[in-house]
Structures are given as structure tokens and as C-alpha cells.
Amino acid sequence: MGLAFPTIASTQSVPFWQTLTTTGQLDNPEMSFWITRFRDDPTASQEEPGGVFTLGGTNSSLFTGDIEFINMPTQPPTFWILSVSAVTVQGKKVAITAGDVAQAAIDTGTTLIGGPSADVAAIWAAVPGSQTVPSMSGFYSFPCTTDVTITMAFGGQAWPINVADMTLGSLTKGSSQCVGAIFDLGAGSNIASGSGNPGWVVGDTFLVSFSVCDV
Q1: What's the pTM value of the predicted model, to 2 decimals?
Q2: Residue 94: CB atoms within 10 Å
């Protein structure tokens, strides 16, 4: 079951949420996601509830503050797309590539954050002690004692990523290096930018707090 648009559906079918919206069956034309976090939780079971998906509005008990709505830059719509406008690392702005390569698929089905090679290299270059991981193409490690503080903006507010979500754990058992949650999309996956694919894929590392799509 997909939540994107007919243009990238293998069957070209209208997704169910779009049908519900156009036929007026939703209280509000929104769908929202709250994803649970069990990283480094010793009490977590093998299977745990993944979170809350609300179709037709938002659950105000799951977030505080205001929701920022930003128009998608692409027409006709394909993925849920936003353009990455700014990134900060350890409190300092990092230069990222503008233009089409800055477009990011906002994807709850992706665990991590993948980005263009040069931009990901620039992000990790701003973290002292970081280095590439030879055994994991496209990935970087950093000292486990370091809190990696990153914000991302998509044309408006800068949104922080929880430091707990920036680590995948120790590189190897007993290692002092931890694997980072932002990777080179071209090297660490089979998704290359261009040919209709966005330069970034922003997954649950960023979305784990709360996210809303205006449908």
C-alpha cells in the first residue's frame, strides 16, 4: 500500500488516500505520522508498536507547538517532495548543493537519511573524528562520545534531529566509533539522483518526531 502519487505507482492507480480526499470522506485533508523510538531501549521487545498513522487530521496529544506547512516544488507530484534549503552541524551552517539535487523525498518507509555525495561528505567533515566506513559503502562513523547535533530546513524553520537518532550504534562490538544515520545515497543504496529521482531521501531519522502531509 503506497502513500505517494499515481505517477510513480507501478499500476498508475489513484492511491486510496487521494480517493478519500477527492470524495470528501476525510474530516481534514491531512495525514500525519508519529513514529516510536526504541533505540538503546533494553526493555523493548522483539516486536513493538511502530507508531500512529492518522488519516484525516492530526493527533494533538502527540506533538506540541505549531506545524509548518510548505508547498511541494514539483508538478505533477511524484514523491512527497521538499527542497532542502539549509543544514547545520554542531551549530554551524554547512554548504549544500542547491537546485534540483536539493529535492528530497520525504519517506516514512526509509529508516535513515540519504543525500548527495558532496553534501553528506560536508556534513560529516563538520563532525570532529568522523571517518568513512570502508566496510559500509557510503556510511560514516564518528566518536560514540560525540553528540551529533544536526538541523534541517526546507525553506522555513530549522528542525533539529534528536541526537539519539543520529547513531546506529557501535561500528563493531567494543568499538569507540558509532555509525552515523546520514549516508551517501549514491554509494550506500541503489538509488541514484537524477532521472526523476530526488537527490535526498529523508526518512525516519528525521521524521520520528511528528510529520504531517496536507493531501
Answers
A1: 0.85
A2: 16
Residue 183, C-beta contacts closer than 8 angstroms, at least 6 positions apart? 112, 113, 114, 115, 120, 138, 139, 140, 189
Taking the C-alpha atoms of residue 125 and residue 131, their distance in angstroms, rounded to an integer, is: 8
How many other CB atoms are found less than 10 A from the CB of residue 198? 29
Residue 179: how many other CB atoms lie within 10 Å: 21
Report residue 135 as a C-alpha cell. Answer: 566496510
d(CA 191, CA 109): 14
The CA-based dihedral angle spanning residues 205, 53, 69, 160, taken in that order and rounded to the nearest 10 degrees: -20
Number of other CB atoms surrounding residue 144 within 10 Å: 15
- Find cell 511541494 and name the residue: 72
Residue 144 CA to residue 3 CA, distance in Å, equals: 36
Give the containing element (helix H, strand E) for 18. Answer: helix 16-22
Cell digits for 215? 493531501
Q: What is the pLDDT of residues 104-142, one digit of tens each?
A: 999 988 999 999 999 999 999 999 999 999 999 999 999
